[in-house]
Amino acid sequence: MHVIVLGGGVLGVASAWYLAKAGHEVTVIDRQDSVAQETSHANAGMISPGYSTPWAGPGVPLKAIGWMLQDLAPFMINFKELDPFTLSWMTKMLANCNTRSYQRNKGRMLRIAEYSRDCFVDLRKELNIDYDSRQQGTLQVFRKEKQIKDLQKDIKVLQDLGVEHQSLDMDGCVEFEPALAQVRHKFVGGLRLPGDETGDCFKFTCALAKECEKLGVNFLMKTEIQQLNEHNGKIVSVQTSRGMLAADSFLVALGSYSVQTLNTVGIKIPVYPIKGYSLTLPIEDESKAPMSTIMDETYKIAVTRFEDRIRVGGTAEIASYNMELNEKRRASVDFVVQDMFPGATDINKAEFWTGLRPMTPDSTPILGGTKFDNLFLNTGHGTLGWTMSLGSAKFVADVMSKRATEIDPEGLSMARYYG
Ligand SMILES: Cc1cc2nc3c(=O)[nH]c(=O)nc-3n(C[C@H](O)[C@H](O)[C@H](O)COP(=O)(O)OP(=O)(O)OC[C@H]3O[C@@H](n4cnc5c(N)ncnc54)[C@H](O)[C@@H]3O)c2cc1C
């Protein structure tokens, strides 16, 4: 079967890998000149099943107001960009802000994320690819006792779902992250997720794309996707800036832009571009740098160690598809790395970046079939697209190959919005 994968981000490339392994002829189409140039380019670097938490939860609307009013706000709404699509997405997200939905969504996210982490382990056994990978867990740190109190319901869900975790006082945190010793007075404790991993998603995607090429995958870059064409209830081709391309099956992995392409054949999915920012900095003093990822829960910013660099990522902005590098938003990312790891790096050498998380209102990606027999989706991974990448891709490749999936498909397809 010839499959066209639309999108060469981490989800598209991972899908191409598993589809090619399943024996299909695969073509990947992307508008950029190489893979992982958009949201998969400079994310926070966490492969974190343990942090698979839906945005929408009980009490979140009130918390969100608090976050917007906070100094160095982790969340912001750009009111100039409030259009009907944004308002409709926000309404759907608010409808998920209750305990029942939260636990159901968290269960679904964890199901994919844990499977995905196992796929990472298998992939490392199969391929020798370098992506600054570390398997040292991640650590959430708290500045206020109240944050630790509020954590108890998340810990209960982790226990119920069998996710390994450790509650730590500051001695415990410093044991795993020695550089925190110099700032220990600013924090009250942490939660460690030993099963989590870290690395550079861009390096990973580029390396995996090279492996795909060895399996015969064709990458058609600098090619703008304009629309899908249907005939007699099937997708027959995709219209691109290089002309019309036909195939037997099509997989949409266009991140935040999946919405527009699917609209051309009357499919509506609630995926919204949630804007985030990151900095990448060279390490100046190893002894003051992190070992893995430390997530500052107060500012919702993650600091991740790559080999000789630090990636600092986070913040969430509702601003439609606006890609401006907003210097005001940079302040919190700048602050956290300097406050938590003073002397580790030189802020003047930072590369500032922004990306659009393809976010669903229930934080669960949309995987699998559509109303067209030969059109499939692998999109909507929001805050944890790299974490869920391999598991989602393997799952979708199995669905497309008409093989039994290794995880339960319950609640993963777009049918959950229309069931
Ligand atoms: C600040 C920030 C921090 C993050 N941190 C983490 C983290 O620590 N861990 C984690 O797991 N996830 C993280 N994420 C989320 C993760 O990066 C995303 O979920 C993931 O990269 C989405 O991948 P994708 O392949 O779906 O989308 P993309 O990487 O955006 O890929 C979509 C591709 O489609 C192409 N495309 C779009 N439209 C067209 C068109 N019309 N024609 C042709 N090509 C087109 C684009 O060029 C792009 O290459 C973070 C995101 C942000 C913004």
Give your account of this protein's structure.
This protein is of the alpha/beta class. It has helices spanning 10-21, 60-69, 84-94, 99-126, 145-150, 152-160, 170-176, 201-214, 258-263, 327-340, 389-400, 415-418, and strands at residues 2-6, 25-29, 46-47, 75-77, 138-142, 166-168, 189-193, 197-198, 218-220, 225-231, 234-240, 243-246, 249-252, 272-282, 293-296, 301-305, 309-318, 351-359, 366-369, 375-379. The radius of gyration is 21 Å and the shape is globular. The strands form four sheets. Strands 4, 5, 6, 7, 14, 15, 16, 17 and 18 form a nine-stranded mixed beta sheet that branches. The model has no long low-confidence stretch (mean pLDDT 95). A hairpin with a 5-residue loop joins β19 (366-369) and β20. The protein binds flavin-adenine dinucleotide. Flavin-adenine dinucleotide binds next to α1, β14 and β18.
How is this fold's topology laid out?
Blueprint: E1 2-6, H1 10-21, E2 25-29, E3 46-47, H2 60-69, E4 75-77, H3 84-94, H4 99-126, E5 138-142, H5 145-150, H6 152-160, E6 166-168, H7 170-176, E7 189-193, E8 197-198, H8 201-214, E9 218-220, E10 225-231, E11 234-240, E12 243-246, E13 249-252, H9 258-263, E14 272-282, E15 293-296, E16 301-305, E17 309-318, H10 327-340, E18 351-359, E19 366-369, E20 375-379, H11 389-400, H12 415-418
Parallel strand pairs: 1-2, 1-13, 2-9, 4-17, 5-15, 13-20
Antiparallel strand pairs: 3-8, 5-7, 6-7, 10-11, 11-12, 14-17, 14-18, 15-16, 16-17, 19-20
The protein binds flavin-adenine dinucleotide (FAD).
The site of flavin-adenine dinucleotide has 39 residues, from helix 1, strand 14 and strand 18.
